[in-house]
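In this supplementary section we document a worked example of the pipeline. Step one takes a protein sequence of length 219 as its only input; no multiple sequence alignment statistics are reported here. Step two produces a three-dimensional model, which step three serialises into structure tokens for compact storage. The input and output of this example are shown verbatim.
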Amino acid sequence: MKKRARGLCVAALLLVAFALWTVLVCAVDVQPIGPNGTAVGFATLNGAVHRFTGVHMELYVITDWLGLVPIALALGFAALGLWQWIRRKSPWRVDRSILVLGGFYVAVAAAYIFFEMLVINYRPILIDGRLEASYPSSTTALVLCVMPTAAMQLRARIRHRFLRRLAVLAIALFSAFTVGARLLSGVHWFSDIVGGVLLCAGLVGLYAALAGKAADDLK
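The serialised model returned by step three reads:
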């Protein structure tokens, strides 16, 4: 119980940090440095990082395609939950960790829709001649929300120690590469990436605290 409470407190603090970071992005050093004169917070920092990285559309395309991996994993766990529902003839007999994971996916989707409607800032470049919402980085959020929770699921479900460690390592390397490449692609401001990391850290921490006991039951 104490471990769960600590986990919930840490997750709450991370989500508060994300909220504060979002407020700062809207208020600190806001300058019209974006395309078509769009305003961007932390303009000096964001502008410097963007000039340093430049724009690499090949990395943008690669990371867009890599975004299909967490989507496929999420669909796989959704299919697992559906299969358990059909086989066990009740949604309440589905593994509790899968039910919590489903709720987690709903929360992630809700956050994505919210920030698509409430635009904090736009990308530093036009995509197909159009402005696109950039905060927080949706690809970063997708990868850092789905992949760590997938690692937690696989750690509990894979019995062979070597395969379990290999799966977790592969997920960690994939996540680090995708987020790093997304930043280097130049299609997001640095503050967008930081926002995505903070949001995901909070949401994943919340999932871990709520699903921890359920995941332990699988072992």
